[in-house]
Amino acid sequence: MDLTTILQQLVNGISLGSLYGLVAIGYTMVYGVIRLINFAHGDIMMVGMYFAVTGIVAMFLPWWAAFLLSMVATALLGVLVDRLAYKPLRNASRISALITAIGVSFFLENLFLVVFGGVPKAFPVPSVFGGVINVNGVIFPNIAIITPIIAIAFLLILLFILHKTKYGMAMRALSFDMETVRIMGVNVDMIISIVFAIGSFLAAVGGIFWAMRYPAINPLIGIMPGLKAFAAAVLGGIGSVMGAAVGGFVIGLSEILIVALFPPLAGYKDAFAFLFLIFVLLFKPTGIMGEDLERGRF
After folding, report:
1. Is 162 in contact with 99 (CB distance < 8 Å)?
2. Mean pLDDT lowest for which of 172-186, 246-260, 281-295?
3. Of the candidates 171, 188, 170, 169, the residue with the CA atom closest to the CA atom of residue 179
């Protein structure tokens, strides 16, 4: 394999990894606050795709307005899911909340199957994302350049919120002791809603860019990216926002490079992502940047 091919695969891997990282942040934030693995998160990503395509095709909005509307609507959906499905189980056992998360996932998938059908729909890719740049034989698709930039920008904004604002301070406090924070007068339910809104917003961003990378969507499209994003969150250290981003890049790069280095194993690329996770956790159970299995510290 020559240098040009290696650089090409690195470009593809970084672009894919940034998508996994965006979705993984939602997993890690929810777990960090309420110790819930929100298995409906991949389907929230799928909903964001359908909101965007509906805005463009059915509402005739400009692509940027449709994308923004999708992100906001998906954030509100995340809050709604928390209020209707998770809030009543705040003091229930973790297994009850986990089963509920799986139930929400099935509900969203089947609701969109009924509404939109199972036939894949074309996702309209704006021209600004569709071009390519050729640098000495290395092809840089515009989408592959823009995606990591957007992912890093949102990561920096989120880190600023977490470490420089009172809402971020409240989120980090909740990750240590929810009851003490409640006693101190903080509106815990509002903070948790903000966490779900941020996570769902980022899932919509990841979903939109995923749909532009693979422009055919269906109601089950969020399952595998959601599972890999979960793997990325665990790999990076569940409860760590930076760890989720790092885990996403690691999963994305490993997935692309395995296919590039061992073409006969291309059909097993999904399995290798999880196999890689297993090997890492055997040697560092808390993940790459995790410090404590019981406390999410963002």
Report:
1. no
2. 281-295
3. 188
State the Cα angle at 255 between 267 and 143, rounded to 5°: 110
Q: What does 1-61 look like in DSSP terms, one character per residue?
A: --HHHHHHHHHHHHHHHHHHHHHHHHHHHHHHHH----TTHHHHHHHHHHHHHHHHHTS--
- Rounded CA-CA distance 144/8 in Å is 11
Between helix 3-34 and helix 166-174 the angle, nearest 10°, is 80
What digits encode the pLDDT tens for the residues 199-242? 999 999 999 999 999 999 999 999 999 999 999 999 988 888 99
Tell me, what's the pLDDT at 291?
61
Residue 182 sits in a domain whose CATH number is 1.10.3470
Distance CA 70, CA 210 (A): 14
pTM of the model: 0.93
Averaged over 183-200, what is the pLDDT? Answer: 94
Q: What is the pLDDT of residue 263?
A: 82
**288 occurs within a structural domain:** no
Q: How big is the chain by its Cα radius of gyration, in Å?
A: 19
Q: Rounded CA gap, 171 and 1, in Å?
A: 47
> Which DSSP state fits 63?
H
CA dihedral of 193, 29, 146, 207, whole degrees rounded to 10: -60
Domain that holds residue 91: 3-283
What sign does the dihedral 74-80-86-91 (CA atoms) show?
positive
Domain count, the chain: 1
Nearest-angstrom CA–CA distance, 199 and 171: 13
- Residue 289 is assigned to a structural domain of this protein: no
Is 294 inside any structural domain? no
Let me know if residue 76 belongs to a domain.
Answer: yes
Q: How far apart, in whole angstroms, are the C-alpha atoms of residue 32 and residue 96?
A: 18
The tokens describing 50, both together, are 């359908």
